Task: structure prediction
Amino acid sequence: MKITIIGLGLIGGSFALCLREKGVAQHIAGVDASPENAAKALEMGLIDRVVPFEEATNGADLVVLAAPVNAIPTLAVKVLNRIKPCQIAMDMGSTKGELGEMIALHPNRSRFVLTHPMWGTEKSGPEAARSDAFAGRAVVICDGGDSAPEAVRTVEEIYTRIGMTITHMTSEEQDIHTAYVSHISHITAYALALTVMEKERSEGRIFELASGGFESTVRLAKSSPSMWAPIFVQNKYNVLDVLRELIHQLQIFRRLLEKDDLEGITAAITKANEIKRII
Amino acid sequence: MKITIIGLGLIGGSFALCLREKGVAQHIAGVDASPENAAKALEMGLIDRVVPFEEATNGADLVVLAAPVNAIPTLAVKVLNRIKPCQIAMDMGSTKGELGEMIALHPNRSRFVLTHPMWGTEKSGPEAARSDAFAGRAVVICDGGDSAPEAVRTVEEIYTRIGMTITHMTSEEQDIHTAYVSHISHITAYALALTVMEKERSEGRIFELASGGFESTVRLAKSSPSMWAPIFVQNKYNVLDVLRELIHQLQIFRRLLEKDDLEGITAAITKANEIKRII
Result:
């Protein structure tokens, strides 16, 4: 296949590596708003050539949107404006509400497949691309019924080739679920990092003791603002729901501790331990 | 050395494995409040024999307290009541305030060395013991000036042999620091697990999408209540300080999101990214 990838960071770059390694792509063109990122991706061999956005659909079997989620809806409309019936477009973003609404009534809507591969690291940019990305994780295909069946099939085949498990749900469901299993983890990591760094300023030496548990909880706080700030804003209402519930749970914990309620804390932890059946 | 370890769970069991592997211990006696744990530790070869608590000091060069932190102060006093001038006692607990106060004026205080090796996993019990524990991490020795210099030296040598880096601070400092780099990570993990499981009850399917980021943030929520509930209660005031600050940071985030303040969220994330210089 000939594939154009728009957005050559962690996700787009990793997708390029995987498509090449699994023999899915014979030729990969790349588009990036940053000329430095595009040049870097070319130099690293992630893509075969850099093209301007206006030429993204030229000769491509598949056009992939891997840009930040606030850029995707506009890019999607522009790509659909140019797309031919034999071509497919897809996105890899973490939120779907705004995107779905922007392309809902587009005459070429059926050429677009909304996808969210559940993989990432705290790194960013083309240098962060990894050929072992995606494998073993779930990918969500959203509102599959609004896309042409053959387009969905092609996209599913590609994700299967790179080792992902396909799940279908509506855009609305996907935005709720990712708020709970992905977006909130990032917010807690950011908040925890800010809390600890604030204390370090007055206290010093805090980090001499940083242990494995701290590292794994705070690792996500290294994730890039250009990718994550737009995700939170686009998924605002779902993220606010989870955030309110998390703050509520922390306040319960705080009240138990203020009352020295060892029994209540033990019960809360025992309940939290049930997460073992899942991860 | 002949060593007695009191508490044969994750920490005591792992210490036994490391002491044996590095040739520090020629004979290890074990004490545990649970006869099942003690039998399991014996069967696994973590210890050479099980002894009742009353015989813990008999013939031992070193007595190690690796029980939950609410049990340690009482055990420490009883061990010091029996200890001879040639013997050393130490603990491996995560909090020091209560312990320090309980033994402060004991005539044999100088035979006790307060230590906190900064290592752990979310597992518990003798089965969770690992021979690769501790190595590469920091160990805190608290109020070292209150212990006999030769006792501190011996304990330092043992920790160095198993690959740890020695740090000295007061009990008070250690309790503040661990609240920030260890205790709060566990509380956020518990709260996050409770939040997500609550939602799953009404929504279902949440966990199909659980990704690597979710797993690493929530992993600590599997940690045992018998170990962690007493830690939070013993370190109440420091943990409450961090908890209040964390809730405050989350509320700031929530308000930025309510106002769709992309710029403010970007600034907060950029500041949180500074954690890169540390981990």
Notes: The longest helix of chain B spans residues 171-203.
